[in-house]
């Protein structure tokens, strides 16, 4: 410590200006050099450092402003998207309800058309059955009539003579002719 104080005290006793040399006393030269370098840095670097800090501050502030503007823009877009979503959901509900009512209407139309078709088929079936019944009844009548006629002819042929036989045949032919006119 004595060397440090001696170096400060010896500042007042400078040797003559003609001598120049290196001071090898590290403790005496470091604080002086450091104070000179720090003084120069503070004096000259103060403006540069202030400019750098001001520039950095301005960049940070502009970044914050840009971020705020982006955030506001994102919020606006989000609100517009939410509005569109609500509108689309309402439209989807309308389409869904219209679709359901359309499906119900189509279902009802299909059921009605099927019922109509079934009713027509039932009527056609009944008409066909009635027609077939009438046809079968007519066929049975004709067979019964033919068999009765053949039986009657057989009986007549065995019991009647030729003259009576011809009269009976003419009468039966007349009856058959009258029956044909009735059925036509």
TrEMBL record:
Membrane topology: Single-pass membrane protein
Protein localization: Membrane
An example molecular function term from Gene Ontology annotations: proton transmembrane transporter activity
Keyword terms of this UniProt record: ATP synthesis, CF(0), Chloroplast, Coiled coil, Hydrogen ion transport, Ion transport, Membrane, Plastid, Thylakoid, Transmembrane, Transmembrane helix, Transport
Similarity comment: Belongs to the ATPase B chain family.
Function: F(1)F(0) ATP synthase produces ATP from ADP in the presence of a proton or sodium gradient. F-type ATPases consist of two structural domains, F(1) containing the extramembraneous catalytic core and F(0) containing the membrane proton channel, linked together by a central stalk and a peripheral stalk. During catalysis, ATP synthesis in the catalytic domain of F(1) is coupled via a rotary mechanism of the central stalk subunits to proton translocation.
Protein name, per record: ATP synthase CF0 subunit I
Species annotation: Chuniophoenix nana
